[in-house]
Structure formats: C-alpha cells, structure tokens
C-alpha cells in the first residue's frame, strides 16, 4: 500500500505535553496523533480480532505488517517515548537507567467483556510486562480513560464489575482522561485499569461501538 493511501498517517500538527497526574504519575500526552482518526478506527475495526491472551477483557488484532504508514507510526512513537518521555522520567532495568527503547510492539484492542462476566484477574488493576506502555484512544463516544491505583493492605473486596474508584484493596491515585485521537505514554509498572463505566459495556454497544485503543509496549 502506498503511504498516501493508508489511513494510518500521522498528523503534521502533534500537540505534545508532559504532565504529572494525580499522585505524581508521569504521563506524556500527544493530542491529534493521527491525521484521519475516523479512518483509522474504521480500518482497525475491520481487522481480524481474536480473544486476548492473559487477562485483557476483550479482543486484540495485529497491525497490518505490510502498511508503510504503520511502520512510520512505530518509528514516531518510539521517537516520542525516547525523546520526550525517557528524557524526563528515570526508568531503570537491571539497576541501570534505560537510555533508550530499542523497539516496540503494537496492536489494536477492544474491551467487550460484560462486567458480570469478568474473572477476578480481569477485574482488578494490573501491571504491564514492560516498564513503559502507550495507548491511542480511538473512540469518539465516551468510553473512559485509564485509572492508576496503589495497592494497599486491605482485603480483596470480592466485588463485581470494572474498577472505577478506590476500594479497601486499591486506592485510586490518578486518572488519564480519554480524548479521541490522543496518544498517552505512561509507566506500566504502576497498577492501572481501563476506566469502564456506563450502560454501553452491558449491551450491544460493546460490540457495535466498542472501546478501541492502539497499544504500544516499549522494549529495552
């Protein structure tokens, strides 16, 4: 596919800012990431989604490897993570500060598991297998951002549904507000969870108009 024909073209006017949210959680915000975000969403939702591995409450799809524009997306996101995030945030591996990420993995993900069908592992906040993670929010409808928690000594609450605030076991420490076509880069080692609330996740909307994100796992 020619670069100009791909929907996955980066905007020429990225709005980049660094901010510490909540209890000092370092986040890089990049608004207006894609030039044609509605086309990105439409193209992504046509991809072959399959049940997510591990405990993600939904389905995932690989990015089209042959798309040259997505290769440029990978390059640009890696550049932002190294130049705008790691330059400000000391992330360590094996006792030494990471100077730069070498690579990243990216895919698309939708959340579509009914709150009553969540396993305990799907329900609770999680940490990522990498130190730094990124997302592009690709839903125009309100589908929630990302919540960060601190695990306390409290007992598991035994509740049902998605986490939306503090419990005896987890205290809410920060929130990234979702915005359509917003890329965020944040520490994956802090317990966090998708902010899933409202009636959409309980009915057909979770399939017809799902919460879609593009995910980036940075590899050092």
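^ Assign residues to that structure.
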């Amino acid at each position: 596919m020619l670069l100009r024909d791909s929907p996955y073209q980066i905007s020429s006017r990225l709005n980049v800012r660094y901010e510490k949210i909540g209890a000092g959680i370092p986040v890089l915000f990049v608004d207006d990431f894609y030039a044609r975000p509605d086309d990105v969403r439409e193209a992504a939702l046509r991809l072959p989604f399959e049940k997510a591995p591990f405990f993600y409450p939904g389905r995932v799809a690989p990015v089209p490897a042959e798309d040259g524009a997505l290769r440029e997306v990978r390059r640009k996101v890696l550049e932002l993570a190294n130049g705008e995030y790691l330059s400000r945030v000391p992330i360590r591996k094996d006792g030494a500060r990471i100077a730069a990420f070498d690579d990243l993995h990216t895919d698309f993900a939708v959340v579509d598991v009914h709150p009553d069908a969540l396993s305990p592992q799907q329900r609770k906040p999680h940490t990522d297998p990498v130190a730094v993670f990124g997302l592009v929010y690709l839903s125009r409808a309100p589908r929630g951002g990302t919540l960060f928690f601190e695990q306390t000594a409290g007992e598991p609450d035994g509740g049902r549904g998605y986490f939306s605030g503090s419990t005896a076991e987890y205290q809410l420490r920060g929130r990234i507000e979702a915005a359509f076509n917003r890329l965020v880069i944040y520490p994956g080692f802090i317990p966090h969870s998708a902010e899933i609330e409202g009636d959409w996740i309980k009915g057909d909307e979770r399939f017809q108009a799902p919460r879609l994100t593009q995910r980036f796992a940075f590899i050092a």
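The chain has a mean pLDDT of 94.
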